[in-house]
Amino acid sequence: MTDTVVSEPAFSQTARLEIGADEYRLRRERVFRLLQERQLDAVCVFGPTRVAYLSGFFFSPTERPIALILTADGRVAALLPQLELSHFQQQGPALDDSAIYPEYPGGGSGRHPLLFLRELLSRLGVLGRRIAADVDGYEHRWGYRGPALGAVLEQPVQADVALIDNLRMVKSATEIALMTEACRWGDHAHRLMQNSLGVGAEELLVSHGASLQATRDLLAALGERYVPKAREGLPANAMFIRGSNTAHPHGLHEAGAVKAGDVLVTGAYGVVGGYESELERTMIVGEPDARFQRYFAAMLAAQQVGLDALRPGRTCAEVEADVRRFIRVELGMDDLVRHHTGHAFGLEGHEHPFLDLDDHTVIEPGMVFSVEPGLYVPQFAGFRHSDTVVITSSGSERLSLYPRELDELVVPVG
Predict the structure, then answer these.
(1) pLDDT for 33-69, tens place per residue?
(2) b or e along 237-271 (b: 16 or more beta carbons within 10 Å of the residue's beta carbon)?
(3) Which domains does the chain carry?
């Protein structure tokens, strides 16, 4: 572990914990320059997270298409359903133009919402010119049925999710500060959950109870500084699964109570300013036997290899290769691997790039990853720690600070 990217606090003790208008403006300016460099005239951004990243407009995605349009000459426009117009005006930037449609699929207009977008692009003077998009039309969700953007415009559209998502890979000091705060509350939620664990504890009740109490604590501590960015979910969350169910990397909750000898795999996170953290731990109820200790030690050592391997200038694939080589050669447990070592995240729980053998993205300071190599023993248990890690100028720093060692992760019996 080495120096941190954040040399001083990005927020005062009274500042609202969110990205400010100036940073959103700088993000859009980066897109304007990118369009000019690629000789594109405009980009239509449909992905809800990408829209939020560029505009500050957070919304609950439904069947109603929303698009943010940026032009190479610096104009900002939007396609919005009527029901989101005032919501956008509350959060988003001033628009140079907009297309407001009454409802999906038409609201009595007899016209699909993307036809309103075609008219907007015509008014902006870019119809028939070089248009890009993150995806070629609105995502199909909640019953939405719509044509491709290229079909509506009757011209090719350069669809490329990387156009915006590559800009999201390296986090700003403000983004890292928000994620650091999110880690603090994810750690707190996990501590509350661990303190509530014991033989007879109900999996669902303990998970939700700890999440609710951690959220109460967060709101009491942060007050009006905390700015929710979603309609659903809690700002601080913790959960666990138990027993042989943990041998499934993404095992679902099961009804029932904790028993002595159960292996637990936990997950906890906070959400601050729309940015997430990630924390996972492997625990044991009662004294660990030799079998558990063997796999736990192997998992912890593999995670340390991943943490040590992360530094600028290396590729994601090289980090994964270090971890897989250690698991295969030093541990002899390659058959217990079910997934890659980790992934980037920020506004979403999983983002590009990935610590994977086929991802050759070069690691840069300011990137944020989970580091979570797992070992999964069929019919016995899974073993996985995950930590939020930020890349620094010469290495990495762990932002989730929850204990990793076994003696801190034993749930007492009796």
Answers:
(1) 999 999 999 999 999 999 999 999 999 999 999 999 9
(2) bbbbbbbbbbbeeebeeeeeebeeebbbbbbbbbb
(3) 38-167 (3.40.350.10), 169-411 (3.90.230.10)
